[in-house]
Amino acid sequence: MVHTKFCDVFGVDYPIVQGGMQWVGCAELTAAVANAGGLGFLTALTQPTPEALVAEIDRCRELTDKPFGVNLTILPAINPPPYAEYRDAIIESGVRIVETAGANPAEHLPAFREAGVKVLHKCTSVRHAVKAQELGVDGISIDGFECAGHPGEDDIGGLVLIPAAAERISVPLIASGGFADARGLVAALALGADGINMGTRFLATREAPVHDNVKRRLVEATELDTELIFRPLRNTARVARNDVSRKVVRILDEGGQFEDVRELVAGVRGREVLRTGNLDDGVWTAGVVQGLIHDIPTVAELIDRIVIGAKGLIEGKLSEVIGK
Ligand SMILES: Cc1cc2nc3c(=O)[nH]c(=O)nc-3n(C[C@H](O)[C@H](O)[C@H](O)COP(=O)(O)O)c2cc1C
Asked: Which is nearest to 281 in space by CA: 264, 293, 296, 295?
């Protein structure tokens, strides 16, 4: 019904992507997205080992016979996870689609290409998108300043970033950051993208494996309730505003260093927020799009609503504008 070249290249019904989400991108959510016709990604590093990732891929296969992928987020770390082992686990499991993010994927592309794995690379600037296209990725996901997680340091919103990328990108282009509904999908298509990626909106679905308090907070929160942390360290992250995020911003603004906030921003604390629903116990990721989230549907309801709504918008309001 809403079909673009992204659907043809990546083998899915609808151009709607559920991007990688640490502690959230597990089999139930990803399989639900796949079953509803979208492209879901398990999050590799949510699994403690490559072997655990293989088990999670198997679990996802039990829940869907549709295509799904795995997100491999490559971030700078003092003790980096064994990225190559995770990559090989993905390949050996027979997964055919990968979302890379966080850094240049060059090191991993030859292995993926040899195994026939399609790569959707997510980045936050036109120059990185162009670079990834030159390296031979199969699709680009471009994350605007609105996005949850790491928006980069350029601060370019989707309204300019998406068409600027579309002017330079010929492989399928996915618009990311700030999308939640049919209006967003139609706008992304008009801006030159071939589909949308959503994180925060999928966090507020029934199948997301997080505490109901988190989902309810996304419904209650407005577009004003996120925080940009780590700005002075040039490793900006957009998170839900809470006691901890405010404290982190204050410490760094007063000249503190990463060591001074390390304990506050520990990943395990964020994971515990999602598990227990104690919303002020750590930092957890959310985007400004929470201002557009008003309910907690199933994934299938959400995707149907977006697809049917997009068709209605194009045939209705937009056609009326040109007198049809
Ligand atoms: C809870 C949460 C965790 C995330 N973790 C990751 C991650 O591990 N790797 C990644 O590439 N993106 C991650 N993201 C970003 C999403 O994949 C997506 O790019 C982003 O959410 C898009 O912006 P939106 O939230 O406005 O839809 C995360 C987002 C959320 C909400």
From this structure: 264
